[in-house]
Amino acid sequence: MSEQNTRLEDWLATGQGLKLLQRCAWIIDKQVNTVNTGGALPFAHYKEELINDLWIFLRELPLGRRQEMRQMVLEKNVSKLCTVISRMYVNRLYDLRRTKEQSGWHAYYRHVRSVLAAAPEITYRPFRQQSWYAWSETDPEIFHDLSDLDFASWPRPDLKATEIRKRESIYHLAKRFWNEAADRAGQPCLVSIKDLVRYVGSHFPQELLAPNIKGEHEMQYDDQGSDQASILEQISAELPPAEQILTSARLGQLAEQFTAGLDEQEQTIWFLRYDREMKLEQIAEHLGYQSAGSVLYQIRKVEFKFKEFCTLWPGLSAEDLDDRLAENFFLLVLENCKNKVGNRNTR
Known about the structure:
- By secondary structure, the chain is mostly helical.
- It has helices spanning 8-12, 15-35, 43-59, 63-74, 78-99, 104-117, 167-185, 193-203, 205-209, 231-236, 242-246, 251-260, 264-274, 280-287, 292-310, 323-345, and strands at 123-126, 131-134, 143-144, 190-192, 220-221, 227-228.
- The protein has 16 helices and 6 strands.
């Protein structure tokens, strides 16, 4: 087999792959202990187990992600690969730490919301009480509240219970649920991610009733088949919530920083859309745009900047999204835009 066709997992089994995993373990040690105010974690004890677990973690990633990593190897961009792997693994630690005491329903909701928030083909709208989405090229104006419905009579998803946490399956569920809701509403609309999770729970109740819904990599088994805590769970149990350490204390400063990076027109559009809750046509008329499509383009551009900024901060990025922090950050940015627009109007 040529080097070009070698799979990532085969390359990891080589001496070069082992050096990569050792380097990742060193980076993870530094990242975790930097934010752990309770003192250093016993990584000397965990080292070999951590390296083994990293290999399993990478082997169980989606095929597309493994191929991206293999391309980094072919391009000899190993430093970038170390950074990517380490960040993914640490994000998993934080996610386990956050959801450790939560119900299966809440753990699954957090996971679904994170997946959908990162999907470029989905319109994602975070608000104080809940997040909404639409599987549509347009920007729907209608929020379709389905909280009073019993979804047991809706068509059952053609998935196995073991598949509902997979990213591709969540896309499938989200698209199926949205199409059904839009058909019943008679038009494209925004639907609540909480309603999507209730829909999944009505057809897979046992999976969402479990104290913790385990992903493919979150639980290991001994030879007798009984559950035992993985290295991920052992380390995550000792971690403080990363978002409280790295992000929460700086949230106001981060909101100011993001708002300052927007031009006056972008600040105004953000304010009119999310504070005044104006429709696209109203914003276009207010700002003198020729069409609602021009406003939609500007909104999409600002939303992209918002997502890109959030990827830099634990608790705000899609991989480790935290409801409280994300909502507070969104509202702080909105308040900043409102103040700047108001100040300009009073000059």
